[in-house]
């Protein structure tokens, strides 16, 4: 396909002002495609198409909207291997991980939304006799990141389509190949023209044009907290709804009564997964002091056993960081950990041995990290873990909540009563107990500077609707 085109009003069209931008394979540093960066005028075209489509799509029976999404899901499954390769190529996810995790999110989230659609009430009575009616909010702008590209696209596009909201998607310009393949599947599924639109571009031009646009009723953004704040500022003038899924600095509390051998290895693996480029990664290991030294040894061994390799090869290894810019940011924070007095027990600055080409980083762990250090406060978004001791349960909770973020938290304990008690005390949108995964259909989102709103399942559908009260019906 011609990656310089945009998908607007049911057709692949050239940009009004072509501005070519190279898409790099982060493992080889080679250009694998050329996209065009859009302009505000391209956004205007896409929004106009979505606005024209809104009355008809909003009035389309829910069963017909469901059928269109089900057709898309069939096409996605048929093109699964191509999607795996697109994700692996554009952002460096090892092909095994891209197949088992990254691309799977397109199926899992879509089915989760289809299941939740049955539980979404479109009209109901209050005890006082008034009627509440749920309606699509309108045309929505969607901005998605590079680290879990299809995961975030599915979490935004599918609920928009199911609830009757035409959308304009701006995927990450760093990893746009999977998004354009997704658009090709949407086109083949037969959605009406204008219901789904895609404009490639960067944040300052296309992202800002979407956020400021007077005809967009809602912005849904996933990315950094800094960029999320910019979206909110741009959207404020038109008082549109803004949902944000932003950064994280997730704590992982390890109590002495858990299965240390199993849980520490799993905790390190979870932190290093996707080369640490996950907003909900458990990057702060907070450990009961009586087992602290043993946990440090177990974590070091797990880090040293974490293989780094070519994403084109099958296997459980991690791949490169997504770009040279991201590699430089991660290296700066590793250096900050050393400067601030963290005890480096694995990894460190530079590339792993044998990786001169590609944006590879070393799986890195710092012990004895304290809350005054930059590594405690700042999201690294790379394969870097910190370890800190605690003395009491209250101390562990205080340390866990000592962050501006609040996306996820993790607890390892053999005591069910403690697990419940600590989970309730943690200021996070999601709590994982003893390695329990996040399931499709459950809400994803956080507190504080991790954003607002929830994605996935029933709550993710509700975010794209307005509720109207009708008196006397």
Automatic annotation (TrEMBL):
PROSITE patterns: ALDEHYDE_DEHYDR_GLU. This is Aldehyde dehydrogenase (NAD+). Keywords: Oxidoreductase. Residues 12-470 form the Aldehyde dehydrogenase domain. The active site is at residue 245. It comes from the Bacteria. The keyword Transmembrane helix does not apply. Belongs to the aldehyde dehydrogenase family. Pfam families: Aldedh. GO terms for molecular function: oxidoreductase activity, acting on the aldehyde or oxo group of donors, NAD or NADP as acceptor.
């Amino acid at each position: 396909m011609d990656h310089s085109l945009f998908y607007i009003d049911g057709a692949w069209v050239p940009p009004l002002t072509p501005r070519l931008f190279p898409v790099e394979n982060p493992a080889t540093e080679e250009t694998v495609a050329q996209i065009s960066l859009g302009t505000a005028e391209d956004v205007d075209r896409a929004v106009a198409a979505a606005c024209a489509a809104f009355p008809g799509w909003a009035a389309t029976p829910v069963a017909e909207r469901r059928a269109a999404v089900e057709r898309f899901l069939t096409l996605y499954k048929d093109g699964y291997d191509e999607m795996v390769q697109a994700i692996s190529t554009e952002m460096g996810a090892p092909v095994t991980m891209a197949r088992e995790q990254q691309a799977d999110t397109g199926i899992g989230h879509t089915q989760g939304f289809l299941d939740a659609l049955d539980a979404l009430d479109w009209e109901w009575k209050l005890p006082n006799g008034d009627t509440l009616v749920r309606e699509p909010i309108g045309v929505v702008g969607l901005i998605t990141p590079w680290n879990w590209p299809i995961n975030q696209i599915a979490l935004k596009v599918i609920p928009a389509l199911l609830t009757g909201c035409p959308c304009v998607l701006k995927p990450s310009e760093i990893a746009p190949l999977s998004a354009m393949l997704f658009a090709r599947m949407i086109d083949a599924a037969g959605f009406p023209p204008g219901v789904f639109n895609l404009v490639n571009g960067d944040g300052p031009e296309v992202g800002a044009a979407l956020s400021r646009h007077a005809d967009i009723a809602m912005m849904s953004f996933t990315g950094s907290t800094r960029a999320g704040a910019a979206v909110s500022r741009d959207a404020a003038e038109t008082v549109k709804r803004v949902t944000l899924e932003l950064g994280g600095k997730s704590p992982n509390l390890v109590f002495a009564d858990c299965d240390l051998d199993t849980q520490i290895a799993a905790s390190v693996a979870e932190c290093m997964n996707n080369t640490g480029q996950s907003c909900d990664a458990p990057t702060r290991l907070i450990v009961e002091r009586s087992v602290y030294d043993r946990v440090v040894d177990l974590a070091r061994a797990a880090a040293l056993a974490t293989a780094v390799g070519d994403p084109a090869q099958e296997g459980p290894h991690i791949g490169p960081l997504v770009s040279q810019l991201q590699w430089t940011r991660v290296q700066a924070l590793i250096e900050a950990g050393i400067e601030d007095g963290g005890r480096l027990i694995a990894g460190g600055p530079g590339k792993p041995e044998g990786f001169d080409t590609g944006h590879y980083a070393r799986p890195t762990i710092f012990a004895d990290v304290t809350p005054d250090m930059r590594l405690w406060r700042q999201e690294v978004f790379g394969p870097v873990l910190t370890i800190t001791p605690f003395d009491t349960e209250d101390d562990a909770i205080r340390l866990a909540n000592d962050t501006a973020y609040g996306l996820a938290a993790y607890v390892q304990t053999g005591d069910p009563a403690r697990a419940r008690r600590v989970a309730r005390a943690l200021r996070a949108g999601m709590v994982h107990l003893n390695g329990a995964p996040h399931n499709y259909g459950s809400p994803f989102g956080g507190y504080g500077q991790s954003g607002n709103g929830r994605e996935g399942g029933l709550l993710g559908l509700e975010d794209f609707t307005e509720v109207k009260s009708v008196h006397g019906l």
